[in-house]
Amino acid sequence: MRIILDVQGGDRPASELIAGGLQAAEGLGLEVIFAGDRALIEGEISRRAKQRHLRAKQRHIIIHAPQIITMADSPIEAVRHKPESSLVRGIEYLRHGEAQAFVSPANTGAVMAAALLKLGRIKGIDRPGIGAIIPTITGKKVLVIDVGANVDCAPENLRQFALMGCVYARQILGVAQPKVGLLNIGSERRKGNVLALKTFFLLEQLGNFAGNVEGHQILEGAVDVVVCDGFVGNVLLKAYEGGAAATVKFLKQAISHDFFARLGAFILVPALKNFRRSLSAARFGGAPLLGVRGVVIIAHGNSDAEAIRSAIGVAANSVRSELIAKIERGLGAPSSAAGLALSEELPS
After folding, report:
1. Tell me, what's the pLDDT at 252?
2. Which of 77, 45, 74, 75 is nearest to 61 (CA)?
3. 336 vs 268, more confident
């Protein structure tokens, strides 16, 4: 299996991302193709081999890409005007069948734009959605989709997110009968804005819809797939991560002002760090861009080597499970009856 890793455009230096790629290649038994500046990549691979007193036995394929798409770049403009960037060249490599998946910690909007322009959408999908894995207190994982691809959505977009999310939950998370929830401000049927009310009606047509869920219920593992628009999903994701970090800081401050608490801090602090890590978006393993015709995994911009290795693992699992083909088969035809009833049930 060949997986392309974009080593430019993230928040951390390319050397950190290359390290993650090398760890994945060695530990997961696959070939990582590095997209970025050739001299930099070759030098880093050679340096790390010398540190381990090893000869670089395997010749890694490198896609030379001197241009960099930054976080500040306009996504569409960057994709059009930086054709020699690691992001664009990596996606093109995937389109031509030279690899089975693409992983990048770069500008999320640019990754989505490049994937749409170069790979296209799966038939039956109007807008792709980014899925993020959220750990819960029960130990299971919940997929939230969308977390940033679309700030404005129609009810049909959210219905499609639910369908794709269910396929992902079955194939990647191992949930035999995933339950879908709609993120809302209350669990009651008539809660929420117009988008939530109309989406509720559409999702009711699915046999596995569990109703509205509030933010705290996600952490409790109430459902397996949560759908929302990208604006709300992105705020939710960053609130979870920021909340975990703030909780650790608050507790450290409280401990520092209490003599007896300080006595137990040696045992407590490592547990708090693990708690923070468990809700860190950089540790979620990479977010799949569901709805494009290819396996594209968006890693957190601040991903370190461990997070990159995990994201490549997510990509590999998606390829092995034939995720794209199963999404295509699992979509089915939209219900015209539901669409007609929707206009009569609620105001436009």
Report:
1. 73
2. 45
3. 268
Contact 187, 213 (CB under 8 A): yes
Say which amino acid occupies 34. F
Longest Cα–Cα distance of the chain, Å, equals: 71
Alpha-carbon distance 255 to 253, whole Å? 5
| Rounded CA separation 328/341 (Å) | 26
pLDDT tens column, 37-79: 999 999 998 888 777 655 555 678 999 999 999 888 898 999 9
Instruction: Report the alpha-carbon distance of residue 133 to residue 281 in Å, rounded.
Output: 9
pTM: 0.85
Binned at pLDDT 50, 70 and 90, residue 209 comes out as very high
Angle, in degrees to the nearest 10, between helices 14-28 and 305-320: 50
Domains of the chain by start residue, with CATH:
1-125+291-327 (3.40.718.10), 127-284 (3.40.718.10)
Among residues 200, 210, 201, 110, which one has the least CA distance to residue 169?
A: 210
- State the first-to-last Cα distance of the chain, in angstroms, to the nearest integer: 48
Nearest Cα to 256, choosing from 271, 273, 242, 269?
269
pLDDT at 341: 35
In the chain, count H helices and then E strands: 13, 11
Gap between the Cα atoms of 317 and 334, Å rounded:
28
Q: What is the pLDDT of residues 81-110, one digit of tens each?
A: 999 999 999 999 999 999 999 999 999 999
Query: What is the rounded CA–CA span in Å between residue 308 and residue 24?
Result: 8
Residues 6+ apart with CB under 8 A from 84: 65, 66, 67
- Cβ atoms within 10 Å of 46's Cβ, excluding its own: 12
Q: Give the integer Cα–Cα distance in Å for 99 and 76.
A: 24
101-104, strands of its sheet edge to edge: 62-64, 31-36, 2-6, 101-104, 295-298, 287-290, 129-135, 141-145, 225-227, 180-183, 209-213
- Give 244's contacts (C-beta < 8 A, 6+ positions apart): 275, 276, 278, 279, 280
pLDDT in tens, 245-258: 777 777 777 777 77
